[in-house]
Design a protein that fits this description.
159 residues; mainly beta; R-elafin; 3 domains; two-stranded antiparallel sheet; 9 strands; 25% strand; flat; signal
Length: 159
C-alpha cells in the first residue's frame, strides 16, 4: 500500500470513518478489451483487486469477470515550458495515484502520464473524421488508439 493510501486510512481512523479498501487501492495496470473472444471465466469480480496481475475486472454480457488486460506504456508528457528546479521524485515509485516521475526541464516532478497502447495507427488519409476527439490513447476505449486523421485526431482500431 502506498503512502497516500496509508494517509487516507489514518485520517479516516482519526475521524472514526471507515474507508473500504477498494476506494484506496489503485486499479490493475492496463485497459479492458473491447471484446473478449475466449470463454468467460466462471468466477465474477467486483474490483481489479479480485483479479490476478495482468488481468482487469471487466464487464462482458452484463457480468463482471477477470480477463487479460490490454498492456499500456506510461510516458511522460512533453515539456511545454521549464518548471521549478527541484527534485520532488527520483523514480515512479516516489509518485502516487498512477503518476510518473518526469523531468520538467530543470528538476523532476510527478505528472499524470500519457498512455500509449500497442499497435500502429492506420493511414490518416483513409480516416475522414474531422475535429479532435482525443489527445492520447488513454482517452480511447479498449484497444483503440488516438490517431491522426485527414483533419484532426480520433480513436481508431490499430493495424
Amino acid at each position: 500500500m502506498d503512502n497516500h493510501s496509508s494517509a487516507i486510512r489514518t485520517l479516516a481512523l482519526v475521524f472514526g470513518v471507515f474507508v473500504p479498501s477498494y476506494l484506496t487501492l489503485t486499479p490493475n495496470v492496463g485497459h479492458c478489451p473491447s471484446n473478449f473472444d475466449g470463454p468467460l471465466p466462471d468466477r465474477t469480480c467486483m474490483w481489479d483487486i479480485g483479479c490476478l496481475d495482468g488481468y482487469k475486472c471487466c464487464v462482458f454480457n452484463n457480468r463482471p469477470v477477470c480477463v487479460p488486460s490490454i498492456p499500456v506504456e506510461k510516458k511522460c508528457p512533453l515539456i511545454n515550458e521549464y518548471g521549478i528546479c527541484v527534485e520532488l521524485c527520483s523514480s515512479d515509485s516516489d509518485c502516487s495515484n498512477g503518476e510518473v516521475c518526469c523531468s520538467n526541464g530543470c528538476g523532476h516532478v510527478c505528472k499524470i502520464p500519457i498512455i500509449v497502447k500497442p499497435g500502429q495507427c492506420p493511414d490518416p488519409r483513409f480516416t475522414h473524421q474531422c475535429g479532435t476527439r482525443c489527445f492520447q490513447d488513454g482517452q480511447c476505449s479498449g484497444e483503440m488508439k488516438c490517431c491522426p486523421t485527414s483533419c484532426g485526431q480520433a480513436c481508431r482500431h490499430p493495424i
